[in-house]
Amino acid sequence: MEHSESSPKGETSSDASRDGTIHRVLGGLDSVILKAWRFFKSLKMGILLLVIIGAVCVWGTMGFASNAALGNNQIPMARKMVFQSPWFAGLLTLFAVQLVISTWHVTLMSFTIWRKKEFRRSASFYEPGSSSPRGVIEGTEEIDKVLPFLRKRFTYAHEEGGAYFAQRGLLSRLGPTVIHFGMIVVLASGLVRFFLVKSGHIVSEGRFIAAEGEYSNAIWEPIDESQMIGGRNTRAREIPGGLYIRVLDFDEDQHANIGSPKYFSSLIEITDPSTSQVTVRQLDMNHSTALNGLQFHQAGYEAVEDTAPVRFNFDIRRISTGERIAVTDTSAAVPVRIGDTDYHVILTGTEPGARWEIFHREDPTTSFANGIVQGGAGTGSMEFAIVEFFPNFRIDPDTKLPINFSNDPDNPAAQLVTYINGEPHTTEWVFLSAELAAEVPTRNSAYRFSLVDVQVPAGAQDVQWQEPGAVRFVVEARRLDGKGEPQILPVFLKERSRSLSYDIPAPDAAAPTGTEKDFQVINIGPTQRYLTVLSVIREPTVAYTTLGVIIILLGAGMTFANRYEAFYALRDTTSGTLRVALVPRWGHGSLTARESLARILRECEAELSCRGTLLASDPNASKAAASEPTISDPQALTTP
C-alpha cells in the first residue's frame, strides 16, 4: 500500500502549498498597503489633495457662483452643490488628516529641537566644498572659553569630548509647524461650519423686513438653500432672545441728476421684553449691529404703497432766527433723529395741533422742549421732475418690479417725484395709457398728475430716451379739491417743473400751547414711506477662520524673519586647531552663511586671542593653498 509523504504534524504537501500561497498573497497585500500608506503620508499626496480642492473651488465659483444663467440663485446653488455638500466636507476632512500625518515628523522635530544635541565627529564633514561654509581656528589654548563664547552668540550651545554644537534662530524651525497648525484651524472651522449649517445654527441668507414705524421679531430664511430667498421660498424664525425691532426712520441720499442712491440708512429701535430695555441704533451701508449672535446689515429698501398718507414731512426751525434745522419725516409716536443733530423728536399725531417733544439722545426719557405742531394757513411751493422714463413699461414676473421691456414706445410710463418747498414729497407713476393711469392711485394729497404726451424731435431716428433734453414730457396737474383749471406743464428728463400752489393745513386753534424753547415744528405734507430690508448673518466660524489665517501669517513671519543656523566644531588635539562649520536652514543663501561664519571667526579672534580662517568653498582651491591647515590624524577625529 502506498502512503503519501506528510509533515511531522501530519500536513500534506498540498496543505503546505496552500499555506505558502496564502502567505504570498498576504505578503503582497501587506506590501500594497505599505506602499499606499507611504504615498498617503507623502508630500505628493498633500499637493495632489490641495490641487483637487483648488480645482473644486474654481469649478464651484465658475460653474455656479459666477454663472449668469442661474440669476439670483448663483450663490445659493454654489453653496448647496459644492461648498456645503457632504462630499466637499469629506474632501476637506481627508486633507486635514493627511496634513496632520504628513507633517507629524516635522512637528516633532520643531518641538524637540530645543533639546537637540548633534555632534559631528567625522573629519570629512569639515572639509570645504559644500554650500555651507567651513573654517578653522588656530591657537585655541584657552579652550575652556570656547563654550561660553558660543553661548553668548547662540540660543543653545553644548560640548562633548572635544565636539561642539550650537544653534540659533529656532523660531524659524517652528514656523512651518505653526503654518500647518493654522491650516488645520482653517480646515476645522470649515468642517464645523458644515455641521452648524445642517443643524440650523448658521444664518447666511436671513432677512429682516419692516416698514417705517412697524415692529417685527421675525427673520426670514430660504427653505431651499439652492434658491434665492423670496416668494414661497421663505420661512420665519424668531429673533433670539425674543427681541423686537421697530424701524423708526429711513433716510436716502441720491446722486444728483442720476436718481440712484449714494447712501441710505435706517434708524432702528430694539426692545428686550424680558428687561423692557430699549436701544436705538443707526444702520447704514458701512455700519452694522450685533444682536444675540446675529449681525444686521443694511441691505436694501422699497417704497410702501400706502392707500392713505401715513408718514409726513416736518420742517423744524429756530423761532428766534427762522433758521431751518432740518426737514424730518415721521409718523405718530415714532421718535426720529432731527437731521445730523443729537436731538430726537416724537409726535402724538401728525396733523397740525398735535403735541411734539424734543429730547437729547443721551437722555431719551426726558424732553427739554415741547409744543404743538404748526401748519400755518397759506400756500407753499410744489414742483415735480421726471426722474425715470420707460418707453415700454412692464412688471417683471419674478421680482415684481418695474422694468423697461424694450426701447419701442409701446407703453410709455414715467416716474415722477414731487417737491414741497424744495424738499422731496412723493413718488408717482404716470402713464400715457388712460386705462393704466386710472388704476394707479395718487400718492399726492393736493394734485393728480397724468402723462399727456411724449414729444420726440422731428426727424429723430434713434431716440435717446434716457438723455436729459432729448425728449420732452407733457404732464397734466389737476387739483384734487376741484379748484381751478388743470395745468399743462412740459418738462425734460431730470428737469424741475414750474411751481404749483400747495395749501398748507392750518393748525388746530384749540390745541394747547407748550414750552417751545426756540423750536418750531411745522407739518409740510405727506411723504413716501419705505420698507427697510436688513440682511441677517450668523457665522460663528468666521472668527476661527480669521484666527487660522492669522496663525498662518504668524508662522510665515517666524519662518522667514528668523534665520536658523547650526554651528558645529571639532577639536584636533594633535594640531591644536578647531575645525568649524555653519549650516543654515534651506531658504538662506550660502553667501549670507559665509558672512555670518566670518563674523563669528572675527569675534573669536578678538575674544580668545586666536586666528580664524574661512576656508574656500572650492575643494580644489583649498588643496592648492599651501598655507591651508590640515588635520594631521583624521582617524583620531572620527567617532569610534
Structural class of the secondary elements? alpha+beta
Average pLDDT figure: 83
Through-space gap between termini: 68 Å
Determine the number of helices (DSSP H or I, runs of at least 4 residues).
12
The parts where pLDDT drops under 50 for at least 5 residues are 1-7, 507-513, 619-640
Largest sheet: 6 strands, antiparallel
Outline = elongated
Strand content: 25-35%
| Spatial arrangement of strands, main beta sheet | 2-3-30-31-1-32
Q: How many E-type strands?
A: 32
Percent of residues in helices: 25-40%
**Rg (C-alpha, Å):** 42 Å
Our count of domains comes out at: 5
List keywords for this structure.
12 helices; 640 residues; 32 strands; TATA-Binding Protein; alpha+beta; single chain; disordered C terminus; 4-stranded antiparallel sheet; 5 domains; 28% helix
